[in-house]
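Data availability (excerpt). The following record was deposited with the supplementary files.
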Amino acid sequence: KKKKKMVKVTVLSGFLGSGKTTLLKYILQNAEGLKVAVMVNDMGEINIDADMVKKLGHKLSGTNQRDEHLVELTNGCICCTLRDDMVRELSILAKEKDITHIVIESTGIAEPLPVAAGFTFGVSVEGSNEQKPLSEIAELDTMVTVVDLASFKTYLAMDEKASDRWEKKSKPAEESDPTNCGAPEAERGVAELLCDQVEFANTIILNKTDQVSKQEITEVTSIVKALNSDAKVITSDHCKVPLSEVLSTGRFSFDSAMQHASWAKELNADNTHVPETLEYNLSSFVYIRQMPFHPVRLHELLTSRDLFSKHNVLRAKGFLWVPNESDQMCHMSNAGACWNIDTEGEWYCNLSAERFKEEMQGIGMSEEEFKKAHPKWSDARHGDRRQEIVIIGQGLQKDTIESLLDKALVTEEEFNKGELWLTELPDVFDLGFLHEEIEVEEDEEEFNKGELWLTELPDVFDLGFLHEEIEVEEDEEEFNKG
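Predicted structure:
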């Protein structure tokens, strides 16, 4: 009997908004001939990235059901609180006969070293009481870190010790402390996390080349290579890189990993890895409302940078209801200095019964299961239209941030006016099509007035006959009066 080749695992790391999900989507869309399973980790209670992957045709498979090869791990991080869950799920996926690769997307605040250390953990051997290391079932092949070129230096500047850290890399080993920049654990900041993610990678993708100058690319490349001179460094726009650079590279080595100063500490049974939420004072919450955003007020809030510069929001990502797109779900993604809003597809409440059934089949749920899971999204007024945004940051003041977002919502009075008033607003997010749809509705209103009003318009196409026909009808009407 031919023995199944060991499945190869790629781990995607990178700070919030660097482009990990973009890379994951690119891999799935271009992995022809490969059988790729996916594990998506999110620190919050709602896994936005898993929802995005589902739209590519993967069904969601939680830890209690496994119909397709997408595993969602939420409310924690796979490098600490969910590491045991990750190991268990990987051991199950690795036994699937048709899987050749597993791609793990970690949270934006995950350290890659503890994830790699999880491959030394024991897993049960089928048919016996023995255990063997996960690494004998699934091969850790590539550790990828995605770096946001547009915000990397800004995040490093948030912690003055970060510059000391990468400068120390050029000094003799005995003069540097690669584990904590010479700072106590409690003082570690976002820059520390960035350094951790870069240092332990063997493939580093410098993403968003379209948003920075050549000089900035050169500067960030120099910093990254000072932090990690052994990794393969690749520049990209929207994470479009050859798949051979992220799958089956063979670049990961346990021998090299064990040389890292923190490796032994992670394997120490008496040591408990400090969750990043505590170590870096990071937290998250989900903003959910069932009232649309006013496009102009939302645009003003986002462009003012108050959410990000004054209230320490590092990442905002999720689904939006913007009224000039009321028939289309919008997706917002913010990271550092950049934010983007675009359309993501139709709201479920707008679908025909047949289309809705197809969508439910696509995500592996029955209509009853969906409605049970989302009871508040089935009212006649709003359907499933909503704001559902995951907010991540340092020292977040939830009430203050929610208040700012609430002020950008449409008021009850505005909502009750209907949609026509929106035609008077600028299309600030360049979404636009609802304006065209409203214009069509206005044309229908004009059409229903009848044809006589057309005589007041110029014959711009030099067709003329309608004017003549109307004139004849008028003459006959006059004649019939006597």
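Summary of structural features: Residues 58-68, 159-188, 433-442, 465-472 have pLDDT under 50 and may be disordered.
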